[in-house]
Amino acid sequence: MHVLVNAAMSADGKLSTRRREQVRISGDDDFARVDRLRAAADAVMVGVGTVLADDPSLVRFDRKHRQRVGKSGVPARVVADSRARTPPDAEILRGDAPTYVLASEAAPADRRRALVGAGAGLVVAGEGRVDLAAALGALSDDGVADLLVEGGGELIFSLVEAGLVDELSVFVGPLLIGGRDAPTLADGEGFVDDFPRLELDDVELLDGGAVLRWSLAE
Ligand SMILES: NC(=O)C1=CN([C@@H]2O[C@H](COP(=O)(O)OP(=O)(O)OC[C@H]3O[C@@H](n4cnc5c(N)ncnc54)[C@H](OP(=O)(O)O)[C@@H]3O)[C@@H](O)[C@H]2O)C=CC1
Ligand SMILES: Nc1nc(O)c(N)c(N[C@@H]2O[C@H](COP(=O)(O)O)[C@@H](O)[C@H]2O)n1
Questions:
Q1: What biological process terms from GO does the record include (predicted)?
Q2: pLDDT tens sequence across 53-81
Q3: Does residue 216 line the site of ligand 2, with CB under 6 A?
Q4: Among 20, 86, 19, 23, which residue's Cα sits nearest to residue 51?
Q5: Quick one: pLDDT at residue 217?
Q6: Using a 6 Å cutoff on CB, does residue 22 contact ligand 2?
Q7: Which ligand has the nearest atom to the CA of 24?
Q8: Ligand 1 pocket mutation, candidates 10, 16, 31, 38, criterion most atoms within 8 A of CB
Q9: Rg from Cα positions in the chain
């Protein structure tokens, strides 16, 4: 499986505000770029923190680009959600695109049932938190070869920590958000040594900001 992380951050590295409310950091051209990334993906993934904060549907994508890259159907949606906290009426469970909820053994049975009842494909991996390597393995077995991860910072950190990310693209927008408690591109516990190293592949000026494309070094 190829894993691409894409997100938009302010010039000071924030994904949103201290209130964890969604901020439009990207401009129209960057959102069009994201639509192409989604079009080229078999599935688009977020953490449950993003589901609870933004209630995203993740259904928008560039249909012409999907034809160009030779993919059929629509990209699936994926939520990393250890305790099955995704509300059964969340936007991510609505519409025609399939949705996988990645949960752990810690997810209560009634919440699992409610999500399956709402149409989710439930993948259980890990005891406390989702075992991301095992869960992505299950997605891969189900035909997900190209996974686009849109955030947030907790999920991105864990994926990088587990060595599961191949590429990172970040739109750095022309604004400052600030706030010591505002989410950043990589939150979690943070690294104190053995910092993952990145190789810069490309820089593109867009929407008054820039898209930086990196590969994760081996
Ligand atoms: N600007 C941008 O491009 C984007 C901005 N955002 C913003 O980010 C914020 C949300 O980000 P954040 O709060 O970090 O939430 P995340 O979306 O990263 O979700 C984090 C949650 O995912 C669950 N999870 C399950 N398994 C794991 C695992 N192995 N490792 C880590 N987490 C796991 C955890 O909950 P549990 O333990 O219950 O499973 C965790 O709390 C919002 O404000 C949103 O607007 C989000 C996406 C993109
Ligand atoms: N690329 C990007 N730029 C921004 O400025 C953003 N705020 C986000 N947020 C992400 O997009 C998701 C919402 O997608 P839909 O509206 O459902 O299509 C949101 O949940 C974040 O993952 N992304």
A1: riboflavin biosynthetic process
A2: 999 999 999 999 999 999 999 999 999 99
A3: no
A4: 86
A5: 77
A6: yes
A7: 2
A8: 16
A9: 17
Give me 211's structure tokens. Answer: 């898209």
ipTM of the complex: 0.98
Q: Which atom of ligand 1 is nearest to the CA of 187?
A: 14
Interatomic CA distance for residues 114 and 106, integer angstroms = 15
Ligand 1 shell residues, CB under 6 Å: 7-8, 15-16, 20, 22, 25, 46-50, 53-54, 80-83, 85, 129-130, 132, 150-155, 158, 183, 187
Q: Using an 8 Å Cβ cutoff, are 103 and 123 in contact? A: yes
Whether the CB-CB separation of 84 and 121 falls below 8 Å is answered with no
Q: How close is the Cα of 5 to the center of ligand 2, in Å?
A: 13
* Ranges of the chain whose pLDDT falls below 70: none
pTM exceeds cut of 0.95: yes
pLDDT at 202: 98
- Cis ω on the peptide bond leading into residue 117 (within 30° of 0)? no
Separation CA 19–CA 22 (nearest Å): 9
Enter the DSSP assignment of 195. Answer: P
Amino acid at 67: Q
